[in-house]
UniProtKB/TrEMBL annotation:
It comes from Agromyces albus. It holds the Pfam family Aldo_ket_red. One of its GO terms (molecular function) is oxidoreductase activity. This is Aldo/keto reductase. Residues 17-314 form the NADP-dependent oxidoreductase domain. InterPro entries: AKR, AKR_Detox_Biosynth, NAD(P)_OxRdtase_dom_sf, NADP_OxRdtase_dom. Keywords: Oxidoreductase. Coiled coil: none annotated. GO terms for cellular component: cytosol.
Amino acid sequence: MAYAVLGRTGMTVSRFALGTMMFGAAGNPDHDDCVRIIHAALDRGINFVDTADMYSGGESEVIVGKALRGRRDDVILATKGHFALEPGLNRSGNSRRHLVRAVDASLTRLGTDWIDLYQVHRPDSDTDLEETLGVLTELVRAGKIRAFGCSTFPAHEIVESQRVAEARGLMRFRTEQPPYNILARGAERDVLPVAERWGMGVLTWSPLAFGFLTGRYRQGAIPAEREGRAALRPAWFDPADPTTTRKLDAVERLIPIADGLGTSLPALAAAFPLAHRAVTSVILGPRTMPQLESLLEALGVELDEVVLDRIDEIVLPGTDVYAPNAAFDVPRLADPRRRRRVGPLR
């Protein structure tokens, strides 16, 4: 296992992180099996575990807490907050009111006194960045979190957050967690360069493009029974969707590259994000032990310039074959009131 410093936090993390979105009711409901997977990852040298309060409604954090008993001091533990876990007003977002409650609830579920990296799971257009940075700064000073970052923020909001922190004397986002894989390379246009410019650590999610880069889904052979992430978003696997066709076409061209390297398509996909100079760690999100073992094959994969050039021919740098964040609408686009002026100009 290789390691790198996470931005300028001073924390050293494994180049592959263990993501736990699939632990719990949304993926693998067997807590004991999930704990075994976490322990296997730690035994292979992974020291970076990423979860979120919304994964299976908090169940993932409970599982992680069980697994880290007796091993907490050796792990850089990251979690996230933003989404609502229960109905009601003021139960989501990046406000002081919500984040204070969310951090305390995560600490309880995780069974720990501190979180190494707390991440705001998505932007919140209704909350001022100063409000969010202010409460996160206070949570660091209270010893509840060690550092904080953002997840899936557009480049302009990352820059704005850095400027607000600088102007107000607040601590700043130290990391960004963007979607990034061979089929979704949009982050190369602006998010990754911006993160590098500000010295932010980058931990990327969805290296397997929601399952398309497992090789399980091929042209003319999409299984009717879907599991894992495919079961969460079945519409994304519709054979009649032109986006599905484009993804499958790319997969057919990528498989010979993996074969030529003597490795699997999942291992090639997991290794790819680390080829970008701005990326610190790639989040692997297995649901089963065989999936973890398959992904960890990437430890032995080296991508040279020839291989990377071939990948560039299949998916151009900075382009997306599909919209990697389509599951979460951007409020300014989804709500007509936020993008239209109705009535005459005054």
